Amino acid sequence: MTVHNIRHGDAFDGGADAVGGRLSRVDGPAKITGAAKYAVEQQLKGLTYAALVESTIASGKVRAIDSKAAEAAPGVLKVLTPDTIISLRSASDWFGTPPPDKPYCPLARDITFSGQHVAAVVAETFEQAVAAAALVKVSYDETPAIVDLSDGKAGDGIPVDAMTKEWGDASAAFASAPVRICAAYNTPREYQAPMEPHGLIARWEGDHLTVWEPSQWLDGMARTYAEWFAVPFENVRLVSPYVGGGFGSKALALSHGAIAASAAKMLGRPVRLVMTRPQTFTSYGGRAATRQTVTIGADRDGMIQSIVHRGVNETSIDGMWVEPLGSVTSIMYATPNFSSKQNVVRVNSVVPGAMRAPGENPSAFGIESAIDELAYEVGIDPLEIRLKNYAEQDPHAKKAWSTRQLREAFAAGAERFGWARRTAEPRSMRDGNQLIGWGVAAGTYPVRRAYGEAMVRILADGSVEVESSSIDMGQGTYTILAQTAAETVGVSADDVVVKLGDSRFPRAGVTGGSRLAGVMTGAVHKAATSALDQLIGLAISDPRSPFHTLQANTLVVANGRIGSPRGDGPDVSIAELLKSIGRDRIEATGDTMPANSTAEDRYKNYTTIAMALPHTEGDYSRHSWCAHFVEVRVDEDFGTVRVSRVVSALDSGRLYNPKLAESQWKGGIIMGIGQALLEEGIVDRRHGRIVNNNLADYLVPTNADVPEIEVISVGIPDLHSSVLGGKGVGELAIVGMAPAIANAVFHATGKRIRDLPITLEKLI
Amino acid sequence: MRDFSYLRATSVDAARQAAALPGAMLLAGGTTLIDLAKCGVAEPDTLVDITHLKGLDRIEIDERGAIIGALARMGHVADHDDIKSRFPAISEALWQAASAQIRNMATIGGNLMQRTRCPYFRDPSNFSACNKRVSGSGCSAIGGVTRGHAVLGTSDACIAMYPGDLATVLVAFDATVRLGDRHIRVDDFFLLPGTTPDREHAIEPGEMITAIEIPSSAAAHRSTYLKVRDRQSYEFAAASAAVGLELESDGRTIRDLRVALGGVATKPWRARAVEAALKGKVLEPEAVRAASLLAVEGAVDHGANHYKIELAPRVVARAILKMGETA
Question: Which of A697, A762, A763 to mutate to test the interface with B (most CBs of B within 10 A)?
């Protein structure tokens, strides 16, 4: 009998099924064949359909809503307006801050942005609802809108003191530095644009609410619904078996959810509400538009003496979104003097939201462009200047890095890319009409940690079930949890069924900030270990067990079979053992919460982000790191930029599944290509409205825009970051891509583009 | 809901008669019509489905030219061997248009009839003023977001850009549209907006496109379609050029030249001034670049679309020079 039991942290040799193996996505076949049923595809008896009516002004008040024609239209069951919708209670925010004791109305009387929900129509069919919604006549008293950051009425905004980071005397050091760089960098509104639009089906049964809705956070959203409708948390069930992309936009319950659930309650029938593509640009926030000024003072050898950073991001008139713009600025390079401050500016837009690497992403565009400018100013290779100013510890927290394989990333990336062959001068590489440029930039993302919970069940046939209310939005939760349970229990991943996306399962915090894999592999590992211990305990102690007479201290499980560590004695399958001891299952729930956690602690952990552990907690500062090397080809006459080659080396610690991690990295890199070259929400300044609110006009990369991408893992297990040694994967790779491309464009053309996206008119 | 009736036409005559009734529209591939119905621009009372009509999808090619049936799919035409060899610009324009899924559905007749991408035209609920949708209602685009709008052929009433690729090639090579027995040059089929932007085509009620006809020429045989855009695929042109070139037997003097522009004008735009300036001249880069500037004579920008005036001549020059290199 061959017995081995791989333990975490060991060098990987466990095949595709184990943690660290390249198992293909276990949910892949269901998605490819169409068997995967997404949230709003549920067929429910008595289902009704809702359509939204949105504001056509950006600022003002609703004077009147004439819904007579809509009410008389065929099939219409209800027209919801601020006057007719049931009253809800305000819900707490995602930190769990108790809400103000006042009603909440998801339909607006006071208009603060174009596209705000003002009414909704529910009808027997989708077509009837859409047709009737067009008949709702809304009149307004319009007031002047602040359309964006550049609006004269926008002002300097509100200082966010919590964002201030300072050490040394940055202004004095800058003033006396022999080399000074000062430049402003802007990023536009960008949108998550998931393939699956937002939507839901809400159904009430008594005071129990079931919501089928794509979600990055079932328990957090369930809490919000429960608070809105003043029912116990346990009465709300969120179901989200598959999620067609979220990128940060599906973590919170939104006003359209409140509208659909209210309508369902008012009608006593289930209601389905799915956003149109244009509505996905105004019903929730994309990435806030940002402006940064980065000044670097350095000596003539390129050693940084001072960084002064000022950032501004837009937020809405009545909501607060802070995009932490100094997050990368404050940690990427060693500097004795530093100052970063940030303001937010209120504009008439929907409140911005989380989008892949919020904060770090625009922050890196500023600092990683600025250091490139410094490199040219002092005549040092852009890679060398980064190594020269390498931060050996966290310059802000003044703590050791848990792990920082960034130097290794630079080395591995440069080697594969052939960076040494780069000619220094801008416009020095060319192929016919194409100017060729090579650029480099680094990226980082903090390790966000929280506690998780999972249930592992060993069934009579020897198969294993895992249950968790966490979700899979394409990043591979189903797969890596199957691998974790398979490796821990000692069965094949084929024999593991992972069930996710139902808030009745053991609870999970938000799938965001690249924390889920680290949290959930830890929880499943713990639950599976506990189930395995039970199994082995019973095998040893139960008088009916074939191992009972062996008097072993322990047993090992591998390939679904149990035996003694030395291979003597019986060798039986898990199913045979369970049968012999008369059990039909073994079940264990495990969590990684601190001992003595109260029920209240647990509720808080799973339904808010208040218990997330700071990445600088304890003695270490924990981050993922990456280095991107990019080649662009710029048509000299047309100004068109094509990314022709990408080599990225990334440190996400230990990879639970390299195939899936590489896929996520590549996805981030592709999204970075879109951010650098294509993506921009364009506002009509007269109307304060996004006009390119569809996927033909809001451009994201197509396959033709994506070159060969080589990704290299340089991570090592980081046990300060997670139970099994992984760091964040999903958000990391987009960080630094836009500046790497902008830097390559400068190398190609000699033109420094500081406003994204780099469209052709900026280069001709 | 908005009810409409659906008719499946059994003959071209039946289709023409049915489509002549008020509120009726022809349905072929549906890629434009359904899109416009979803955004509230098209509100047909009757759809006349012509996709089952026999014989309208034929592609016939002989030494005189090509006749492409109105129901031929974009993808089939793009991939047709004789089209590729004798009218390469047509194949190239189609390949660079839309997406594979759309090309598999969309028909050639429907392609000619595609509407502008002007965001103000496409959003009636937010922008009530659009002279293309409602004559006399005004133009929301002027003074708004204009990056994709036309710089040639505009009027005070409309600056919407004609977005198609194929028709740009067709005007370059003097193609005609067959409306049954009536034949009309493609250049005349598309109308300038003037004071009536709602009238886009010289087609009368009761008429239906049955085919397009492209005469053979040495220039069409040696032709290309160059499309420049921010995104590599599935995007309308920032500027494009259809170019055909015929050289004298000396291999350097231009005997015939065809130039048309896409992505910059309110209709497919023949650049006759460029052709005239270069015909009879020796093909050399400086002369080509200088003549290409004539492509945007009379262009008027609306701010954000100014780049098109810079870009279009460069695209024209590149396409001509590229054709010059292919002996």
Answer: A697
